[in-house]
Prior knowledge:
By secondary structure, the protein is an alpha/beta fold. Helix content is 58%, strand content 11%.
Amino acid sequence: MNVKQTIPSPLDSNLLTRTGVVYVIDDDEAVRDSLVLLLKANGLKVSPHESAERFLTSLESTDLQAPSCALIDIHLGGISGIELQEKLLGLNINIPIAFITGHGDVTTAVHALKKGACDFIQKPVKENALCDLISQMLSKAHSIQMLSKAHSIQEQTTTLEQMNERFKLLTPRELDVLDRIVAGRINKQVGADLGISIKTVEAHRANIMEKLKVNRAANLVQVALKYQEAKAQRLI
Length: 236
């Protein structure tokens, strides 16, 4: 594979290149090794794979916490590059993808772009063009992760706010009863603690479960413990 090298690298000072991962999927060993050497020379972490099948298998034990992107040969044997892109979308694995193509693959590459690929790069690969593309893809991967985390935090905040509003519905007596249920005391013991009958305890318990929207005692304790933890951490 003819790789035109240029020094210095545009990636040398990019923090994402020190934490991100570039997956290289190409069934041509010479091309794959050449890309790996080039990318590593530019300070990148590289995970090479000889087929789409091996790449997909590796993802089963891979934690995609670091920003990552993929360089995929558009004409892989077995599962093709386009088919791999579709499988990743089906698995909800949202990593930026660029395809490595020959001069006659432009139409296929354009089709891939319409399905969400970031770009395609033609052989012979030029170092500056490749490094610029990798930098853009890792930046996009970082943005995708930040957006995902923001959505997760928003969902968690909404859940905690809903929980807090439900607990505000409990009366002081119901809170007393709930504290003792969480402590593992049975209805008879709760009644003795508070000077009320077992039937009254049962009535309070039913009201608590209705207000907190739980239908099992175990769930009631779990919700109460989660609420206590959230308050202790000042999340609500």
